[in-house]
């Protein structure tokens, strides 16, 4: 396998767990904005597809062993976001403060249909990866940061 394919694959798998790794590492790997968006969205959506199925299983397992809901500060914050913004709010905030897995499991736990999860996570990951890719690409084009990066590599 070529080194460029392994780099793409590594970034792809990191996007399963942390969204920002795609735009950051894609730009640092020298990818253009389009390829950075592609690797970020495909990695995120792969995670969403897998965890919509795993999430339903985990939800059944969790409810079997822990039937009473546990309220923590984080759970209350998630419920506040859900009550205020619903599916859109969770999908919108997933790349910013949640992980693709976390956002997917939250949507699954609230009983959102898979089709809706895929749709909302797709537009959210596409929008945020585009914003992040262009922003990071423009920041790295500033001579100060470009020189700083080259000094770090060399």
Automatic annotation (TrEMBL):
Assigned keywords, A-Z: Membrane, Transmembrane, Transmembrane helix
Domain of life of the source: Bacteria
Bilayer-spanning residue ranges: 6-25, 37-58, 90-110, 122-145
Full protein name: DedA family protein
Protein source organism: Algoriphagus sediminis
UniProt lineage: Bacteria, Pseudomonadati, Bacteroidota, Cytophagia, Cytophagales
């Amino acid at each position: 396998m070529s080194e460029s394919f392994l780099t793409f694959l590594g970034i792809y798998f990191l996007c399963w767990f942390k969204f920002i790794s795609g735009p950051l590492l894609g730009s640092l790997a020298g990818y253009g904005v389009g390829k950075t968006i592609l690797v970020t969205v495909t990695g995120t959506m792969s995670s969403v597809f897998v965890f919509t199925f795993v999430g339903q299983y985990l939800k059944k397992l969790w409810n079997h062993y822990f039937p009473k809901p546990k309220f923590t500060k984080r759970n209350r914050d998630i419920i506040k976001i859900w009550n205020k913004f619903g599916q859109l709010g969770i999908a919108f905030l997933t790349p910013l403060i949640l992980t693709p897995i976390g956002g997917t499991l939250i949507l699954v736990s609230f009983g959102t249909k898979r089709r809706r999860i895929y749709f909302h996570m797709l537009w959210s990951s596409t929008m945020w990866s585009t914003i992040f890719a262009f922003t990071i690409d423009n920041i790295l084009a500033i001579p100060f940061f470009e020189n700083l990066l080259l000094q770090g590599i060399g």
